[in-house]
Amino acid sequence: MEKHPHPSLLRLLFLGDVVGEPGRKAVASFIPLMREDRGVNFIVVNGENSAGGRGITPKIAIGLLRAGATVITTGDHIWDQREIIDFLPTEPRLLRPLNYPDGTPGNGSIVLETEKGPVAVMNAQGRTFMNNPLENPLISIDNELKKIRKDLDVKMVFLDFHAEATSEKIATGRYLDGNVSAVVGTHTHVQTADEQIFPGGTAFLCDAGMCGPQESILGRRVEPILHRMKTSMPQTMPVAKGRVDIRGVIIDIDPDSGKAVDIERIACFHE
C-alpha cells in the first residue's frame, strides 16, 4: 500500500477493541499521526472495552470522537455501563450491534457524507459461542443494507462484525462479498494475518486485534487471570499497564464502485 492514497480513493482506518485508559490514550495519540502520515480521512474505532475493559461511557465516547474517531462501534459489552442506555439514542455516531430486537436503544448503522461521497458504517454481532445470541446476523445485515440504500446511493459500506468464531466471520465476509466495501472482525483481541480482498471487491480481516496493554492477557493484568485459572476462584481483573499494542487495518476504497482496492494491517505500539 502506498504511504498516501490516490486522491480519488477513500482511506479508512479501523482500530480494534480499545481496552481501558491505556488504550484510549494510545488511540488519541495515534489518530492524528495516521491522518498526517498516511492520509487517513475516515476513522472507525471499536470502543466496547474502553471503560475499564468493560463497555463504554458517554464521557469516553465523547472523548474518542473528539480525539478524531468518525464512528465508534461496539459489541457484546455495550450495556456494561448502564448510563450508556440513555446516551445511545442521543449520539448516532456511537453504534451497537444492529441485530438486537426492534425497540432496542440506539442504532446499528450510520451514513455520513464525506468529500468522497456517502459512507455507511454497520455494526453486527455473531452468534457462535456468544452469550445471549442475537437475531440472525446475515438476515439483519441484509435488512439494514436495504434500509440504508432505499433512499441513498451508498456504495462505500464498512462492517465491524463482532464475533468469536473465525468460521462465522469468514462466512459473513464471503456472504457479503461484492455488496459491501469491507468486513473486519472484532472481539477476540488477537489480530489475525488473513487480510485479503475477496473476488467481489470486499476487503476482509478476521480480527483487527486490540488497542491495549502488551504485557497482559487480552488487555487485563496477567496475575489475577492465572490465579483464577489455577484456583477456579473469582478474581477482579483490572486493565494492565505499560506499553500499548495498537492493532487495526487501513483500507483504500474506490468511491465510484464501493470496492476495496487495497488493505494493510496495522501492528505497532505506543509507549
Describe this structure in words.
The protein has a single domain, classed as Purple Acid Phosphatase, chain A, domain 2. The protein contains six helices and 13 strands. The longest helix has 19 residues. 47% of the residues are buried. β3, α2 and β4 form a beta-alpha-beta unit. Strands 1, 2, 3, 4, 11, 12 and 13 form a seven-stranded mixed β-sheet that branches. Strands 5-6-7-8-10-9 form a six-stranded mixed β-sheet, with helices on one face. The mean pLDDT is 97. Helix content is 25%, strand content 27%. With 271 residues, the chain is α/β, with parallel strands linked by helices.
Q: What would the CATH topology be?
A: Purple Acid Phosphatase, chain A, domain 2
Question: How many helices?
Answer: 6
Give the CATH H-level superfamily. Answer: Metallo-dependent phosphatases
For the biggest sheet, the summary is: 7 strands, mixed
Question: Class, according to the CATH hierarchy?
Answer: Alpha Beta
**How much β-strand is present in the residues?**
25-35%
Oligomer: single chain
Question: SS-based structural class?
Answer: alpha/beta
Q: Mind telling me which CATH architecture this is?
A: 4-Layer Sandwich
Helical proportion? 25-40%
According to DSSP, the number of beta strands is 13
Order of helices and strands: EEHEHEHEEHEHEEEEHEE
Instruction: Give the mean pLDDT.
Output: 97
Terminal residue distance: 26 Å
Low-confidence stretches: none
Shape: globular
* Overall number of domains: 1
